[in-house]
Design the sequence.
């Protein structure tokens, strides 16, 4: 489960500032372009709308909030009421304040799933598509859609990223094995704003 | 008639020593080659016997494991894994600890021993992703059967959770949780426990699984102050396999090298391996330093190189022979006992000094080499024989001690002293006859101030004796306050990892300063759980009276049948809980079928079911919280054991009273704790010491009686011992040194060694006329001074070791030897002046 979260997070970071492509991309070209774009990024903030369609619920959960990221290994998501909550990831330490209970949970991910390692991995030149992973990319008007199907066995079934022409992520869609679907739409994305560690604290 | 027979017997026995010494002198003089062949054969046999000896480093092996409290402590180490596992304590800046822990864990996981992984598992995080499903399974079971785990005092909150309003609130909260969690990560646990009952039972289970006081908010096994992080690693093979353990420790040392925080490694057995190198270095340093000091003293006085270089040969022969003979009785020798070599150097060099001093003195007076050797062996040898016997017999008397630490040391030192004497009596004549030349000149030996001392004590004998008596009284006053240190940890090397780890746990992680463990043994799980009920009731009673700070047992982390019935009775009205929940799930937009398993259990009456203990335990045992079961329930070849832990502050719980109460409510229960183990060992050591001192003193008295054949001589020999022993106890109080399980043997040592000094003075000065008495005192006094110095060098080397046990022996013995030698040289010579003046 945590590897799913890691993958999901890293793709968010990578995709935020991907420059739009005027042509169709091969999977390898697409991934390498993401890496190049990510190389110039130090931090970013964005507002988001998250829609969750969980298999155990008939209704769709919709929530608003903000996300922050800072290299090498900080990520924070703050959701507004009525589903207020905070998710803070400091490399391998995942802290969550769920729901309105205010109770804080902390778990530690295995080192290989730490955010820092993912960031390191993305920084390396892409020479091949990872074995078992399927990547599709297409250009639709000013938007670029990248669909990633990770190797079987993991929690993630499908990940779709929609990029805008300026390289920022427009939409992120995550489909999990059990049929749970999460769609995040980003707006007002600002990059390299000079975030510090103090911006990644759970009050 | 009896008295005459006794006198006759004593007389006959006393003649045996000169006869024996004459025989030795004749053999070494007439048949040197035969003697060498016999010696070489014996030493070869000793070497073969020594090769069959195993050297141990485990401190637990030093104490009698058949005592109830220590036995249970050792058993519990096996049950809990403490004996098998390695514990890493990372200490440093809180911000650095997680990163360093990750790095260390990775290296430990990658550690290879003989081409295979060195560790089966390495754990330092509370949550392991691989256990998520098992955790969800436990939560599902507990949420469906809340009576099994929800504390009885939370039954109102539990009941409220199943009301219509409670269900609605719980589902509102669940929706929020699902919304705010990343992706669908909360779905599994939501389905298992839609009403969030885990808030009611998880704190209790988590608390029950922790043996240490850790930060509940930390995702790591972290102390509350955030300064110590614990990592547990299970070696791939038992660490009692020394070859494997040594390689593992080498790998551990590599893995932790370069860490930015301090990393200590501990574990009941692995600590012994880790500290092995330091221990060996300590002992080697003792041996080498004492040897160098002894040789330095010898050379400084006698100024002859070749006799100086003979001393190591005599000592090595004595040590080898004693280890060889001990090998016939013992399977193994503890490495601490091997430290006795340093003592043998100190004690054994005495015999070389006395023999060579006599030889040198005779030669400097123009006596031929052959005659000088014979006089040294047959005359000085008599005193030495009695001196060695009086030293070795008290040590050998310890060989029957219940405590291995004392018995092994007693046997090895006793045999070592005896064999070193024989090595001197046999090898020195051989060497002297081989190396000495008739033309070699021997200058008179320095008096080392003994002539001035003799004159000084002759001038003011009464003043010296008065000051001695007053000093004795003063020391006796202080001696009454001599204390005994029952802390076993103080016997360990003070800078060892085991000691450091223990300190870290005490400072940062102990649930309470003191603890007790109660075990109820039985043939089945059900039997021990039933048998443990009275223990749990006793513990609960003590907790309610404030006599224990905390306690834990299986009964405290899960509900026993009676508690379950109480809760079930409270929930009996919840006949429509499933229907209400199903309705609310629908109402709040959940797919009811996804919660089908939980609803089905509720419909079958799981809320009001009393779950058998075995079922609850088996569920816990396969969950990530299996630590609850592992801590409180053990199974081995002897059967099942239910364990209860009690934590308290010093003075809070009266141990004797508790043991008595426990014997009343659960007569079969066993109990242990460091205080109880110390008490047991203290009793065993006390018995051993009393037996050793009594037996040793009795044997020394008999020897002195045989030697002097009158009470006055015996009294004169024991006078310095009495002064030395009392002064030693008084000095120990003055400098804050306490007796402990190891240095108690010094009392026996002082009796054995101390009476030699008085005996030598009496032996030499009493057998000369008044004109020669001064010269005899100078010769005997010089020998005593040098003997005391070399013995102090032997014990002194122990005093500076890192090993608490050995250092305490060294300091105590040095005080004793110093004051005994002082008493033999000052008041005793003053007394002789007084006695001969009257005559």
Sequence:
């Amino acid at each position: 489960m945590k590897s799913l979260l890691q993958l999901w997070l890293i793709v968010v970071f990578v995709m935020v500032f991907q420059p739009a492509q005027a042509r169709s991309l091969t999977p390898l070209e697409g991934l390498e372009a993401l890496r190049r774009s990510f190389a110039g990024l130090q931090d970013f903030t964005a507002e988001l709308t998250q829609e969750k369609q969980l298999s155990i619920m008939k209704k769709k959960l919709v929530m608003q909030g903000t996300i922050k990221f800072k290299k090498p290994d900080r990520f924070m998501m703050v959701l507004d009421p009525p589903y207020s909550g905070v998710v803070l990831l400091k490399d391998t330490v995942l802290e969550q304040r769920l729901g309105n209970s205010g109770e804080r949970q902390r778990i530690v991910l295995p080192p290989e799933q730490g955010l820092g390692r993912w960031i390191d991995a993305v920084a390396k030149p892409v020479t091949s598509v990872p074995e078992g992973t399927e990547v599709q990319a297409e250009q639709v008007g000013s938007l670029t859609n990248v669909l990633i199907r990770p190797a079987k066995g993991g929690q993630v079934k499908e990940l779709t990223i929609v990029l805008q022409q300026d390289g920022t992520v427009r939409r992120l869609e995550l489909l999990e094995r059990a049929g749970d679907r999460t769609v995040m739409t980003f707006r007002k994305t600002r990059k390299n704003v000079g975030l510090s560690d103090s911006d990644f604290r759970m009050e | 008639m009896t008295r005459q027979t006794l006198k006759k017997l004593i007389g006959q026995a006393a003649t045996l020593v000169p006869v024996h010494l004459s025989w030795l002198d004749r053999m070494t003089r007439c048949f040197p080659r035969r003697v060498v062949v016999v010696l070489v054969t014996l030493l070869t046999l000793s070497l073969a016997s020594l090769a069959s000896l195993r050297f141990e480093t485990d401190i637990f092996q030093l104490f009698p494991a058949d005592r109830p409290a220590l036995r249970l402590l050792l058993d519990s180490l096996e049950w809990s894994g403490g004996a098998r596992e390695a514990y890493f304590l990372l200490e440093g800046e809180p911000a650095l600890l997680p990163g360093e822990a990750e790095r260390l864990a990775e290296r430990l996981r990658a550690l290879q021993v003989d081409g295979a992984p060195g560790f089966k598992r390495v754990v330092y995080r509370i949550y392991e992703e691989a256990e998520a499903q098992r955790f969800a399974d436990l939560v599902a079971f507990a949420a469906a059967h809340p009576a099994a785990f929800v504390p009885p005092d939370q039954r109102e909150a539990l009941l409220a959770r199943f009301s219509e309003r409670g269900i609605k609130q719980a589902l509102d909260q669940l929706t929020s949780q699902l919304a705010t969690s990343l992706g669908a990560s909360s779905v599994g646990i939501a389905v298992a426990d839609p009403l969030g009952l885990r808030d009611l039972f998880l704190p209790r289970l988590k608390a029950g699984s922790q043996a240490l006081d850790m930060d509940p908010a930390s995702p790591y096994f972290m102390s509350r102050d955030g300064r110590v992080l614990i990592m547990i690693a299970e070696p791939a093979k038992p660490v009692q396999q020394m070859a494997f353990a040594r390689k593992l420790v080498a790998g551990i040392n590599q893995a932790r090298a370069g860490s930015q925080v301090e990393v200590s490694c501990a574990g009941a057995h692995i600590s012994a391996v880790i500290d092995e190198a330091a221990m060996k270095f300590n002992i080697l340093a003792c041996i080498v330093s004492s040897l160098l000091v002894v040789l330095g003293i010898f050379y400084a006085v006698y100024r002859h190189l070749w006799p100086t270089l003979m001393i190591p040969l005599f000592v090595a022969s004595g040590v080898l022979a004693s280890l060889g003979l001990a090998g016939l009785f013992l399977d193994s020798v503890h490495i601490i006992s091997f430290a006795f070599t340093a003592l043998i150097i100190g004690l054994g060099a005495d015999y070389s000094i006395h023999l060579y001093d006599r030889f040198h003195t005779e030669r400097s007076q123009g006596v031929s080499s052959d005659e000088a050797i014979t006089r040294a062996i047959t005359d000085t040898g008599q005193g030495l024989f009695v001196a060695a016997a009086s030293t070795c017999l008290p040590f050998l008397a310890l060989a029957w001690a219940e405590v291995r630490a004392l018995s092994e040391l007693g046997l090895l030192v006793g045999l070592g002293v005896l064999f070193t004497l024989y090595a001197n009596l046999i090898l020195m004549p051989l060497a002297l006859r081989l190396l000495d030349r008739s033309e070699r000149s021997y200058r008179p030996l320095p008096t080392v101030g003994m002539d001035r001392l003799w004159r000084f004590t002759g001038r003011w004998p009464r003043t010296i004796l008065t000051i001695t008596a007053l000093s004795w009284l003063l020391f006796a006053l202080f001696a009454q306050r001599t204390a005994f240190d029952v802390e076993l940890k103080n016997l360990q090397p003070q800078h060892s990892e085991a000691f450091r780890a223990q300190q870290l746990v005490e400072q940062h992680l102990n649930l309470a300063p003191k603890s007790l463990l109660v075990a109820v043994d039985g043939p089945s799980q059900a039997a021990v759980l039933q048998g443990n009920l009275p223990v749990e009731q006793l513990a609960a009673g003590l907790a309610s009276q404030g006599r224990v700070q905390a306690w834990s047992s299986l009964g405290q982390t899960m509900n026993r049948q009676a508690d379950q019935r109480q809760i079930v009775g409270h929930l009996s009205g919840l006949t429509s809980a499933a229907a209400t929940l199903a309705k609310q799930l629908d109402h709040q937009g959940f797919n009811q079928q996804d919660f089908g398993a939980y609803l089905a259990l509720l419909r079958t009456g799981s809320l009001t079911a009393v779950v058998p203990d075995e079922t609850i335990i088996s569920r816990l045992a396969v969950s990530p919280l299996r630590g609850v079961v592992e801590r409180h329930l053990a199974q081995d070849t002897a059967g099942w054991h239910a364990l209860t832990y009690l934590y308290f502050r010093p003075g809070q719980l009266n141990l004797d009273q508790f043991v008595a109460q426990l014997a009343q409510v659960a007569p079969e229960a066993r109990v242990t704790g460091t205080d109880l183990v110390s008490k047991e060992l203290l009793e065993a050591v006390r018995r051993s010491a009393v037996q050793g001192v009594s037996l040793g003193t009795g044997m020394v008295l008999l020897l002195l009686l045989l030697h002097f054949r009158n009470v006055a001589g015996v009294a004169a020999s024991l006078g310095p011992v009495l002064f030395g022993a009392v002064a030693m106890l008084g000095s120990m109080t003055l400098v804050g040194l306490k007796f402990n399980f190891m240095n108690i043997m010094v009392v026996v040592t002082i009796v054995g060694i101390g009476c030699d000094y008085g005996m030598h003075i009496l032996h030499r000065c009493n057998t000369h006329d008044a004109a020669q008495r001064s010269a005899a005192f100078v010769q005997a006094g010089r020998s005593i001074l040098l003997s005391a110095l070399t013995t102090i060098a032997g014990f002194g080397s122990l005093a500076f070791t890192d090993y608490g046990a050995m250092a305490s022996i060294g300091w105590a013995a040095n005080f004793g030897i110093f004051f005994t030698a002082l008493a033999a040289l000052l008041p005793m010579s003053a007394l002789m002046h007084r006695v001969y003046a009257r005559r």
Observations:
- Chain B has a mean pLDDT of 86.
- Residues 84-126+219-266 of chain B form a domain with the Alpha-Beta Plaits fold (CATH 3.30.70.100).
- The longest strand of chain B covers residues 639-648.
- The two ends of chain B are 32 Å apart (CA to CA).
